Amino acid sequence: MEFFDFAAAVIVSMIRSAPVLMFAALAGLFAERSGVVDLGLEGKILASAFVSAAVAYSTHNPWAGIVAGMAVSVAIAMVQAFVSITQKGNQLVAGIAINIAMSGLTFVVAQYIFQQGGRTPDLGDARLPNIVLPGTEALANLPFLGWLWGRVLGGHSPLVYLAFLLLPVVHWVVYHSRFGLRLRACGENPHAADAAGVSVEKTRYLAMLVAGVLCSFSGAYLSIVQSGFFLRDMSAGAGYLALTALVFGNWRPLHTVLGCLMFGFFTAVQIQLEGRDLPLVGRIPGSLIQMIPYVVTVVVLAGLMAKSVAPKAIGKPFVKSR
């Protein structure tokens, strides 16, 4: 029975951990499918997490916080797009610069405004409420169905449902819409797309705009749903894990989300193992348990990097032929 309780807790925790990576990975998918390397996911997550928490606390309205986080994430994405697309700058350096800048700036601004060591106050009632499905109370005492209906399918934040609903939407946009066709063309052969009358710069700007919007949900989820406050560097490498999931998924929506769920699973295992006494092993030190998601990341990259096929024009500034 203890094993089944552990497994049930891991599944629920995985569902609640994965959206942070899913939003960021799908954001990176749009940017990189268009040909722009988006190493700035981490910085956009941090910026939107801070602004979302600060605005939600100030207005006591989590939705206002989400909108504000979206605005700042899009603004950063547009700056990144200007440097990478219009100015033909180094896309890797631009992304890393955003990450470093946001890591320091969010801490300094949070300390200046709230004077709490670089964090925001607890949000309290400004957090997003969980959605309780109809019939949850009536089914609560049923052994399996109550858990499935009340904790797996129900009892989550609206952003959790949004993360999973985005998968079919993103799949349709990328593979079955005119914008998706242009997006993939600009990432594979921008000169051929340009010859066909597609504006490569406009398509890449639109891709970065979408990436900014999606990435903002990741930051808002961290601060308004998971933690209930903003803390310095609270993303803890989520942007880089999202990029790893993107490589794991070979830049395809479904496989990328499966990669996010895999990392969410190991994060959930890490959370559930902390403080537990295991048979024959005893209590594992917390520092070793916290290594689990990152060890998995290294293994995935080492095993799959050679097999992954990135868009052919990724990271290459487009110079229009004359």
TrEMBL record:
InterPro entries: ABC_transp_permease (IPR001851). The chain crosses the membrane at residues 6-27, 63-85, 92-114, 158-175, 205-224, 230-249, 256-273, 288-306. It is a multi-pass membrane protein. Coiled coil: none annotated. Its main location: membrane. One of its GO terms (cellular component) is plasma membrane. One of its GO terms (molecular function) is transmembrane transporter activity. It comes from the Bacteria. It is found in: Cell membrane. Keywords: Cell membrane, Membrane, Transmembrane, Transmembrane helix. This is ABC transporter permease.
